[in-house]
Amino acid sequence: MHKLFSLTAGMGLLCLAVSCNTDDAAEPQQPKNACLVTKMTVAGTDVITYQYDSQKRLQKADYSGDATEDNYFKEYAYNAAGRVIKETFKSDDGGDLSYFTFEYDGNNLLSKIAFYSRNAPTNAIVHQYNKVIDYNVSKQVVKVSTYAPDNSTTPYRYDTYTYDANQNVSKIQEYTQHSTGAVNDVSSEYTYDSKKNPNLGATFLGVGAETHSRNNILSEKVTYYLSGLTKNYTHTYLYNEKEFPVKETVNTGSESYQVDREYSCSE
């Protein structure tokens, strides 16, 4: 949730909205009376606004920055079960820049994410990678493996997930495949508040602590084992009456910035 993720086109991590389904789904869902994020402002300049359909599904996210940045938007498509199956990243003129596709297993669990983007010099849309998701018996994500499009056998990266007693992701360990085997090169450890997480169950955000934890991150410690570097991030919040964060202050150690969220809340 630190600034590294803000406005990163390939990651799609600023589309903060809540999935409002109540079925036995892959991701823990907020109830139907949950608040939907309608606008988010990052560091006072980067603004994202969200449009929903009559079923409270995110249809479009508009991104705008300061005068030096290009504006763009994302559109979403759904299957008959109401699950997002495609997120398309577009320039202001409507041209496709990249897209994600989402697949689900027989239990409605998110099972695969594929990413496609334009490659130089031809500018053609190219399949970049696949992410395959594994679950435990409690339907919690326990492993995310990243494969090259032409290799469905051996992942070149994978992440493992550990949870605390409150169903929050407490640790993610990242591994890279080397000729001698998998190497644990990065780990992230998290602590949380006790309030409602607006990212919970947002499939289009992919997988991570932000989308698979019931509460909001208070601290994140990232350890880079190969370099010996450690980074610490802290988050403080103000909440609305529904216990969703409306103001978030992120401290990276070298800088701090604010994230403001506006909601539409049903009774």
Automatic annotation (TrEMBL):
Residues 1-25 form the signal peptide. The keyword Signal applies. Gene3D superfamilies: RHS repeat-associated core (2.180.10.10). Keywords: Signal. This is RHS repeat protein.
